[in-house]
Amino acid sequence: MINLHSKDEEIIYYLHEINKGIMPKFERCTGVSQSRLELLHVLFEVEEISQTALQKKVNIDHAAVTRHLKQLEERGTVVRRKNPDDNRVTFVRLTEEGRGRLEGYCREKKRFIQNVLQGISEADRDHLADVLAHIQKNVKEIQ
């Protein structure tokens, strides 16, 4: 491990390393990225939504949302269509096949989370969630 100067630096280092390591393993275990899973969750909750509104809900940049949706469409998970009244607007909806895939992704996500949090007590999980929420709030407030 790197020689860190303080406990505070060590905390930031661990957060960084966890962030770097968790996403590739999450995707390998679940079969889908966290970003795509967020998109699919939003689509599951609505009949149909504009791509712009979807992008705002998940807070992912426009180009990334377009890329994700194109790949999900190629796999038969979502369907996109142009608004007949305004060609600049694209609507997106989850297919039935996509709904089935989402159920599988959610099962794998649950299993992944259980593995990540294995051996951590419920009380420690509660405390950790509070601390991480506080850190997230602090990061958002940094100018």
Features:
143 residues, 6 helices, 3-stranded antiparallel sheet, mainly alpha, 3 strands, Arc Repressor Mutant, subunit A
N-C termini distance: 31 Å
**Average pLDDT metric:** 92
Assign the CATH superfamily: Winged helix-like DNA-binding domain superfamily/Winged helix DNA-binding domain
Specify Rg, calculated over alpha carbons.
Answer: 19 Å
Reported for the largest beta sheet, the result is: 3 strands, antiparallel
Number of domains: 1
Strand content: 5-15%
CATH class: Mainly Alpha
**Which stretches of 5+ consecutive residues score pLDDT under 50?**
none
Task: State the total count of DSSP E strands.
Answer: 3
Judging by the overall fold, what is the CATH architecture?
Answer: Orthogonal Bundle
Q: What is the number of helical segments per DSSP (H or I, 4+ residues)?
A: 6
The best one-word shape is globular
Say what the CATH topology is: Arc Repressor Mutant, subunit A
Order of helices and strands: HHEHHEEHH
Walk across the major sheet and give the strand order: 1-3-2
Strand pairing plus helix content: what structural class?
mainly alpha
Describe the structure in brief.
The chain is mainly alpha-helical and 143 residues long. It has helices at 7-30, 34-45, 51-58, 62-74, 96-116, 122-141, and strands at residues 49-50, 78-83, 86-94. Helix 2 (34-45) packs across helix 3 and helix 2 (34-45) crosses helix 5.
Question: What does this molecule look like?
Answer:
- This protein has 143 residues and is mostly helical.
- It has a single domain, classed as Arc Repressor Mutant, subunit A (Orthogonal Bundle), CATH 1.10.10.10.
- 69% of the residues lie in helices and 12% in strands.
- It is built from six helices and three strands.
- The chain has helices at 7-30, 34-45, 51-58, 62-74, 96-116, 122-141, and strands at 49-50, 78-83, 86-94.
- The chain has a three-stranded antiparallel beta sheet with strand order 1-3-2.
- It starts with 6 loop residues before the first helix and ends with a helix.
- The mean pLDDT is 92.
